[in-house]
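Worked Example 4.2. Consider the chain below.
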Amino acid sequence: QVSRSPVNLTLVPEAIPAIEESTQVVDRVIAEDRTVYGINTGFGLLANTRIAPEDLETLQRSIVLSHAAGIGEFMSDETVRLMMV
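Applying the procedure from the previous section yields the following structure tokens:
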């Protein structure tokens, strides 16, 4: 059914507190000006490079985009739906 038509997916309510807690941890790291790998540092060989607070949003977006890949022709909506769940 997922491949043939759009479906609505939701997180179980029990997941929400864990997400909120994780967000609070990251916010606290930034507020306390602590250095934490992957939150306000570069990655890999740049792990010791501190990222300026005004560049953190760009850092997070860039790490997602750095994992983007192309495979040629666009896939069908049905195939993409199956891959996403």
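The chain has a mean pLDDT of 92. Residues 15-66 form one domain. Compare this with Example 4.1 before moving on.
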